[in-house]
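hey so i finally got around to running the thing on that chain from the lab meeting. sorry it took forever, my laptop kept dying and i had to restart like 3 times. anyway pasting the input first so we r on the same page abt which one it is
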Amino acid sequence: MKNGFLIGGGIIFAGLMLQLSVGSVVWEAFAWPANGIVLAGFLAMIVAVFLLRKKVYAFRFIGSYQAAIPALVYAVALTIIMGLTRQTTNGSWLNNMLAFWPFVLIYVYVALILGEVILRRVTHLTSWRRDLPFLLNHLGLFLAMTTATLGNADMQRLRMITGVGEPEWRALTEQGVVRELPLAIELKKFIMETYDDGSPKRFASEIQILTKSGKNIETTVDVNKPVEVEGWKIYQYGYDTQMGAMSQISILELVSDPWLPLVYTGIYMMLAGAVCMFILGGRKRV
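ok and heres what got predicted. didnt touch it at all, straight out
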C-alpha cells in the first residue's frame, strides 16, 4: 500500500511538472481521429502489461488492490477539489480540472488499473453468478471513463443568433471562432409568456431547420426542451432582452457530442451490473 501511494504521488508530481512546462492539456489536439488512435494504443498497452505481468513486477503490481486503493484515494481527492472549486473553460490549474495534468494522469492510471483487473477476471472466470455483475460494473465504468475523457475533444458547444426570415448556418464557439454547420436554422417566430409583473414566464422559438441531407423540419425549441437533429441538440438560450416579447432574434445553443452514446452504454452496463448483483445475490441468500 505504501508503494501504491508513492506511485500515485509520483504521477501527481509528474503532472505538476507537465503543467508548469507545457501548460494545460489541449484537448483539441485529441480530436478525431487522434482520440481513436490514442484509445487503440491505450487498449494495446493494457493487454501488453497484462501479458508481461509475470515477468515484470511493476506490471503485476498495477493489477493489485495495493495499487488500486491509493489510486482511487487520489482520484477521489482531486474530484472533491473539482467539486469545491468553480470550473471554467479558460480557468487555470484547479479551476479547470479537466485540463489539469495531475487530474488527467491519475484518471488514466485508474483506467489502466481497471483494465488490468478486468482482464485478470476474464481469464479466471469461475461462476457467472459472481462474474457477470463484476464484469458489467467494471467494463461499464471503464467504457464510461475512457469515452467521456477522449470524447471531450470532439464535443462542440456553439451559440447561434437567428433572425426572423434569415436562415443562419454559422455559429460561434466559446472563444468567438466562427464555425459553419451542416444545417441551417431560420427563426419563424419568437414566443414569450410573462407573469403579471412582466417577468418572463416562458420563452421559446418556432424555427425551421434545413439539413444537408435534405430534411426540412419545423419545430419549437423551448427552455429545457431541446430539439435533436442529426447528432446536434438545439437549446433555447436567449433573446433580445431589450425588445422582450417583440424580439426579432433568438439565441440558440447547439451541442454535438458524438461519443455520448458510448458513455451512456457504460452507464447502462453499470446499472445492469447493480441489478444483476441485487437479483443474483438475493437468490443466493435464499
